Structures
1.
Amino acid sequence: MDNEISTQPHGMEDVEIQEWLESLDAVLESSGPEVAAEILERLRAHATVNGIDLPFSANTPYANTIPARLQPLFPGDQELERRIKSLIRWNALAMVVRANRVEHNIGGHISTYASAATLYEVGFNHFFRARSEEFEGDTVYFQGHASPGMYARAFLEGRLSAQKLENFRRELKPGGGLSSYPHPWLMPDFWEFPTVSMGLSPLMAIYQARFNRYLEDRGMKPATDAKVWAFLGDGETDEPESLGAITLASREKLDNLIFVINCNLQRLDGPVRGNGQIIQELESAFRGARWNVIKVLWGSEWDPIFERDTEGLLVKRMGELVDGEYQKLVVSSGAYVREHFFGSDPRLLQLVEPLPDEALRRLRLGGHDPRKVYAAYKAAVEHKGSPTVILARTIKGYGLGEAGEGKNVTHQQKKLNEDELREFRSRFGIPLNDEDCVEVPFYRPAEDSVEIQYLRARREALGGYVPKRSIRSKPLAADHDDLFKEFLEGSDGREVSTTMAFVGMLRKMLKDAEIGKLVVPIVPDEARTFGMESLFRTVGIYSSVGQKYEPVDVNTLLYYKEAKDGQILEEGITEAGSMASCIAAGTAYATHGINTIPFFIYYSMFGFQRIADFIWAAADMRMRGFLLGGTSGRTTLGGEGLQHQDGNSHVLALPVPNVKAYDPAFAYEIAVIIQDGIRRMYKDGENVFYYITVMNEPYAMPVMPGDVKDGILRGMYRFRPAPNAKAKLRAQLFGSGAILNEALRAQEILESKYGVAADVWSVTSYKELYFDGIESERWNRLHPGEKARVPYVTKCLADAPGVLVAASDYLKTLPNMISKWMPRRLASLGTDGFGRSEGRASLREFFEVDSRFITLATLHELFVDGKIERSVLDKAIKDLGIQADKPNPVIC
Ligand SMILES: Cc1ncc(C[n+]2csc(CCOP(=O)(O)OP(=O)(O)O)c2C)c(N)n1
Ligand SMILES: [Mg+2]
């Protein structure tokens, strides 16, 4: 085992090692731990240069990091805090048991909070500082499955009614209920951070802590000692996101960040590492990443035993057991513990000889001992120079006894029988008699009871209640007509891509008096891809240490400028981390009362496709800001092929209710969308955010054709009507993004070669059109007696004659989903299938979305309607050079 320590090195007498240990003790005594550590470090270096091969281990022994003699005094009333905690335990359990009595299988978790209660209560009573006018407050990410405990506490605090608790997981009941997990969308005055999709919160917490520093370094908020706490499960650390950014946290010296990992050694199905030691594994990962690691393994009852163990036998023995054995030990009798744990060595048995079996059974784990937990938290908040992780050992389902304590099934335990309830009641001293107890009533002592008074006083001392979400920013004026005006006026024939147009807007926004400082550009190592490198120089790349080197390109205009007050968050190749930054910036209006406006620009394929769950969490958190899907569209990104070419993201944006997704073709469309977005989010306070795709295909940007702003925002407008509206053959062409140009070319071909007069529409957002359509349908269904609402699509096309053809750089399902509100049948072209490494023209031919295929689709529709002869169609296929037997792109 990694942490095994030998008590008898080769060729060394006991007495010799004893001398070494004693001299170290003497140094410790006289000069303190820092000097002792320095000596050991020097010894290690000395040994290495003298050719001694010391094996590397990032582990320390399987013992508490803070020894008993360095433990601070516990400042609270321990007995009273225990009683309060017991009441919270009871109410948390009652909430789940009651909910499942009323509605079978409604779910909920008992055992997670049961194991974590002390970890939270020490935080609530002594550490978590609330947000107030004067102080930004600590930020706490609560483990999602522990939410019953947070509700139960809020009930004692008088913040949640018994009725709300009664309706745990039944939010739709009259009077409302409580959401299963932390969801700011559902409980916007309570929860701040959604944490239940495991792995997201550790990563979000790291970037939150870093964003707090960013705000300070840019002078946007005063520097404070506010902390970001993240509570995780040990099983949760298997999610790659959980540990994925821990080196960033240490690199950035985020001593404002504290992870508390509840190491109950169990996950849902069974042990996290039955055949190993999750605590040691995590310790080495975090120590290797240069975190401050504090292990809280053993409770105070163990201290005297350790003291008697002058030979280090106990620590050695503790390091030998695998977690599966530990899990068994904590639920076993004292006799079993004596035989199987201490029985491995007669000297160990001797250590515990004076203790009766019952005392052995009650040897508490560190995570259940408030004194040990307090010591760890205090050390963590006082630690400087790196983030801290606390690895606290607990028992899953603590206190549930036969109903699930330490059992493999405990995660899903939701029902207790009468005996089990009585036992739990007695164990935690809940003042309910045998009869009442089985009804599992919520229990809150009188307002003037010592428990409630104490609990309130503690929270008052810490500035108020936690968790609590409120919006503290002031609305912006958002008066930006002048800022965006130039982008409505076209590019004067100059060929630019919509990405370039966007970057032009960003550059201008960064100079704006109101929003200049608030804009937070975020890039995952793609700034050059998007032509943003000029911003490096103008606003700088944020670096907490400034720039310690002369950049290689210092003599160029656009050199790589890092600065402590840099504005760009250049995150490196991590879309997940960038999104976490975007979330921190986009929720700062609530967390910090600062209206930062994130613009997160990335390869569109690596957004919704790769980090959809973070985007979902952002939606839950009421994030504001802009996601820019760069190099988007399956055929606008030439050369890249299957994994980069995005024809999916607009479909994947559909499920996120509050994301507004736009696929604009022209600079003025983007300008209108962003200007309106800033107004809606930062002036009117709407809980929406934006997804805008931008492309890298250059073409001349037209002047905005009249007042089409409303159409742009609602999803479609007629961009170019047919020149010959009186023609016999008519068509309506719908194009989006860069494919709009193909529709415009098709309009010309149809006009000049086939006498078909087509109007061309720019469809900026199928999602907006779809939502409008389903809302009209729904309203009409519910209000049959009233004047029927007409979907916007239907209104637009009311007097639009001819056949209907849509072409998109995304899946055909986008246009198809609004076709039922169109006056006639719709033919849809799109890019279903895998991409190819090719140039744009070949890709558009391959996916059958170029002007020729739009022309063919239009003629085919006219043929189906009996408006043209077959021969015209046959000839067109030939003239357009279309290969009728080409493979189907969807399946090849
Ligand atoms: C991403 C994700 N995958 C799966 C789940 C389902 N799930 C909920 S709790 C749980 C086990 C949690 O174990 P651990 O992290 O050790 O927490 P504990 O309850 O033991 O404190 C699982 C698998 C989830 N919530 N999120
Ligand atoms: Mg666990």
Note: The chain has 36 helices and 20 strands.
2.
Amino acid sequence: MGERLAIVGGSPAIPPGTIKPWPPIDDSDRNMVMDSLEGGKHTFGPNCVAFQEEFAAWNGNRYAITTNSGTAALHMCLVACECGCGDEVIVPAYSWSSSATCVMQHNAIPVFVDIDFDTMNIDVDQIEAAITPKTRAIIVAHLHGRPVDMGAVTAIADKHGLQVIEDACQAHGAKHKGKKVGTLGHCAAFSLNQNKCLVSGEGGMFVTDDEVMHKRAQALWSFGEEVGPTGRRDYHVYAMGWMYRNNDLTAAFGRAQLKKLDHYLAAQKENAALLTRELEGTPHLILPSEPPDGEHNWYEYTIRFDMEGLGHAKNARAFRGKIVGALNAEGLSTYIWQSFILPAMMVFQQKDGYGHGCPWSCPHAQAVDYSPERFPMATKHTDWHAGVNTPLRAPNDSEVVKLVAAAIRKVMANVDKLEDLPEGAA
Ligand SMILES: Cc1ncc(COP(=O)(O)O)c(C=O)c1O
């Protein structure tokens, strides 16, 4: 292809203003939020109660608790599963930071397992080797909206008597064997921040089908009290508690968005399928795939650049930066979702969460090895990937997707021209 790349002065493949922002806002959002504002109850109010019930019904859970973040909901999962001081919790080596820091929030110890390069999720075949007598739970993250093979995970968990926590923060509506994520383990956390498929500004949702887990999570969520904010509280603290409750305005926005979620997810799925068809066969591009026995929600369309084929295996990050810079110049805002694998992050390398080396120095803990070399697939993925999300979300349609594909094909067809450019933006 002879087109001149935009990064060296050519015309961008995607004209400015083409890609519509996320999330789409209409009168249903405005009315719900304004009604809450004028309704006089801005703390945990009627919209919060309704939002929990509606989300539980939508996802197919017995219980849901609306929280102020996905991270709060993850912490609640740890407590629901009774993970405590010195217990080990298995976590994928590549995920959002709080998939792992939630473990330390309850004085437990994260034990990382490498990812499977193809699925980008925890390598299920490596989980058993990471189990020790101290292991209490497995956290799986359905990353980018691709569901983990939960049949295999629950078989391992059942064999060893472990709890399974789903970090479903990115995976609203994704399914494994026809069942929605969040119903496949013992409890789960969803995020509702502005990037997510279901948004409420910031926010989260804890879900479970287990009554006892629900009670434990609820106590942590509201000051360690046994009665929730709508009951007859005695204001007695029975257990360690935080203040993780949602507020009525945010819940009102979330409720309005939940009504549109199925439509959003269908649009995203269609757009992702079209992008795959458009990009198939593009040299040096590794495309994401739909799991054989599940449904991706396409929260993020994650591409990888074949750095070995491109001759940049040794300086993958730097060359990926040039490719991403070129894509951005074409009008496609791709981003690097995580630049570091989790075990390489300072808090794990220094093993100091609360000062004095806690929780790793706690007498209940045993030594764990966070050497980054133990996680080669997570490292390779981190260095090779770039993500696309907003252009595939409603109201962006097939016309936008075709332009996105054209931008990616254009950059990959001219990738040799990036060799001599100064290092890019990523
Ligand atoms: C996989 C994953 N886990 C946890 C979180 C934390 O969610 P929140 O930002 O709502 O706390 C996020 C979102 O950023 C996420 O993507």
Note: The first strand starts at residue 63 and ends at 67.
